[in-house]
Amino acid sequence: MKRKICIVTGSRAEYGLLYWLMKEIQDDPDLELQIMATGMHLSPEFGLTYSQIEKDGFKINKKNEMLLSSDTPIGISKSMGIGMIGFAEAYEDLKPDIVVLLGDRFEILSAAAAAMIHRLPIAHLHGGEVTEGAFDEAIRHSITKMSHIHFTATEEYKRRVIQLGESPKRVFNIGGLGIDNIKRLQLISRDEFEKSINFKLNKRNLMVTFHPVTFEHATAGMQFQNILDALDELKDTNLIFTKPNADTNGRIIIKMIDKYTLKNSHKAISFLSLGQLRYLSAMQFIDGIIGNSSSGLIEAPSFKIGTINIGDRQRGRIKADSVIDCNTTKEEILTAIKELYSKEFQNKLENVINPYGEGGAAKKIKKIIKETDLAAILKKEFYDLEFKI
């Protein structure tokens, strides 16, 4: 009897990371892939990106409508409740043998809680990471405690999951999933990329991705305006904006991006979703990433390009030498951009090593999920570390 593996995905970025794992499971004759799409995938406002999953040749078994048209704390809390009801019904219908969850978004917390109550084993990807500026931090560690098999991106993250009381026998460092895309996708040429986005690149080019810092109150607009003010001072520089996820106050940034690109269409363009192929292909031709996206820390170092990491959202994450941290003031952002283009920094990029590995994560995860005995995995014993005082 085939082992049924249910993968939950709620956003374009998350699906991009899960793609090769889904392919590995789909192509294995001993496994049955189940896909549950939820969150932003089903929202017209965020591009109805579930259609990309289907275009890629996957069957979506369940669609869980949960995202309300609100990015307030009340709206997101209600979305989580609606989501949990939908996940409960879907698990009852699909009856998976194991549920695979990635990361730390609120949709995934609802999926984990419903799976726990259904007594379903959970495999959690990218646990143990630290992002002190966002409530993703608490969500991520909460999902770890509800999960039974853990796949981390670095040895330090592996140790942190064990520190949370998880058995070392169930924690595996397999590297960053995003590296698989870099190694396995056939990236497109500069000319093909420009045609695909109907936009010409310039002498200098930057990608801008900025998300709200969800543990701060009403800072999104001010911080993003400082970024725009800094970018306005650059010469011969074109800008590619990718819009934020459905986080608290995310719509403030989306409106600001729309207004800016409309006014500066000669040098700026924006996207709800570039898709993994175009997004990673763009990294071949840009000088760096500006904002606070995890992709600037995990994928960008593999392209030997710089990342300007603004503010506290990613504070605590492991970073390559290609990452320049700065505060959210216009002056500090401009200083960081100047450093990015400095000869010294550009020379340093040639020897950058990506701390998130060299790829192969999807194959490793599939093998472990396939071979792990699930019969008695639900009852976990807390793994105590021995402390010397």
Give the gist of this structure.
With 389 residues, the protein is α/β, with parallel strands linked by helices. The chain contains 15 helices and 13 strands.
Give a structural overview.
- The strands form two sheets. This protein has a seven-stranded parallel beta sheet, sandwiched between helices.
- The chain folds into two domains: 3-175 and 360-371, Glycogen Phosphorylase B (Rossmann fold, 3-Layer(aba) Sandwich), CATH 3.40.50.2000; 189-349, Glycogen Phosphorylase B (Rossmann fold), CATH 3.40.50.2000.
- The chain has helices at 12-26, 50-55, 73-94, 106-117, 136-146, 155-163, 178-184, 190-197, 220-231, 250-263, 275-282, 295-298, 330-340, 343-349, 361-371, and strands at residues 3-9, 31-38, 62-64, 98-102, 122-125, 149-152, 171-173, 204-209, 237-242, 268-271, 288-291, 306-310, 323-326.
- The protein starts with a strand and ends in an 18-residue tail after the last helix.
- The mean pLDDT is 93.
- It contains 15 helices and 13 strands.
- By secondary structure, it is an alpha/beta fold.
- Helix 4 (106-117) packs parallel to helix 5 (136-146).
- Strand 6 (149-152), helix 6 (155-163) and strand 7 form a beta-alpha-beta unit.
- The longest helix is centred in the first third of the chain and has 22 residues, at 73-94.
Helices, strands, pairings?
Blueprint: E1 3-9, H1 12-26, E2 31-38, H2 50-55, E3 62-64, H3 73-94, E4 98-102, H4 106-117, E5 122-125, H5 136-146, E6 149-152, H6 155-163, E7 171-173, H7 178-184, H8 190-197, E8 204-209, H9 220-231, E9 237-242, H10 250-263, E10 268-271, H11 275-282, E11 288-291, H12 295-298, E12 306-310, E13 323-326, H13 330-340, H14 343-349, H15 361-371
Parallel strand pairs: 1-2, 1-4, 2-3, 4-5, 5-6, 6-7, 8-9, 8-11, 9-10, 11-12, 12-13
